[in-house]
Amino acid sequence: MPRIAKLYFRTAIIFLIIGIAMGLNMAISQDHSAIGAHAHANLLGWVTMAIFGGYHALNPAKAERRIAMIQYGIYTAGVALMVPALYLMLTGYPQMEPVVAIASLITFAGVLLFAVIIFSGEPATRPATATQ
Ligand code: HEM
Ligand code: HEM
User: Fold this and answer.
1) Using a 6 Å cutoff on CB, does residue 116 contact ligand 1?
2) How far apart are CA 66 and CA 49, in angstroms?
3) Mutate to test the pocket of ligand 2, among 40, 79, 97 (most ligand atoms within 8 A of CB)
4) Residue-wise pLDDT tens digits, 40-65
5) Ligand 1: distance of its center to the CA of 17 in Å?
6) CB 13 near ligand 1, within 6 Å
7) Has residue 76 been placed in a domain?
């Protein structure tokens, strides 16, 4: 598996653990205020990151490109900032809203960069040779 795919799955599982911990905490305390942080930790974290990692695993040539690591850095920074800031915003710290807004835009930039990866052509991995 390409390095970037492993990295995405390792990051994704951390968000699933955090997301489920928030879900259990909501269920046990019967206070569902953190629902948005829970939903987005699981969906932007676990689900979307696992899809990004899966895409790289299926496209190992693209996974070696520099843009793949840059995209990982931007997207992960966005989600890693958004989830705790959203949690705080929803649980009594409304002043965190601008942080959530900035983190959302960083996350979106990471998504747009992934669109660039998806639409870019396969890099040439070996010199073109005549095929039979
Ligand atoms: C043991 C694991 C989990 C527990 C205990 C849990 C618990 C909860 C709780 C208590 C709520 C609030 C429900 C409400 O107020 O209506 C919730 C909502 C939600 N959870 Fe989880 N959850 C778990 C795993 C997951 C996972 C793995 C995902 C996604 C991959 C997920 C996605 C969502 C979403 C999207 C909502 C919002 C649903 C809505 O808007 O009505 N949850 N969860
Ligand atoms: C930067 C990206 C995103 C932003 C800024 C965003 C923003 C929002 C907002 C403002 C809400 C309404 C929350 C409320 O009513 O209290 C919401 C709800 C929701 N979003 Fe997102 N979203 C993003 C990405 C995603 C993605 C990628 C998914 C799924 C893969 C998703 C799934 C959901 C679900 C299931 C809900 C309803 C659960 C809840 O109330 O939290 N979102 N989102």
Assistant:
1) no
2) 18
3) 40
4) 999 999 999 999 999 999 999 999 99
5) 13
6) no
7) yes
Mean pLDDT of the region 104-129? 86
Is residue 132 in a domain? no
Check residue 122 and give its pLDDT: 79
In terms of phi and psi (left: phi > 0; alpha: psi -120 to 50; beta: otherwise), the region of 116 is alpha
Residue 129 lies in a domain: no
The domain of 43 spans: 3-119
Total domains, the chain:
1
Q: Characterize 33-67 residue by residue with b for buried, 16 or more Cβ atoms within 10 angstroms of its Cβ, and e for exposed.
A: ebebbbebbbebbbebbbebbebbbebeebbebee
What are the DSSP E strand ranges found in 18-121?
A: none
Q: Is residue 130 one of the residues assigned to a domain?
A: no
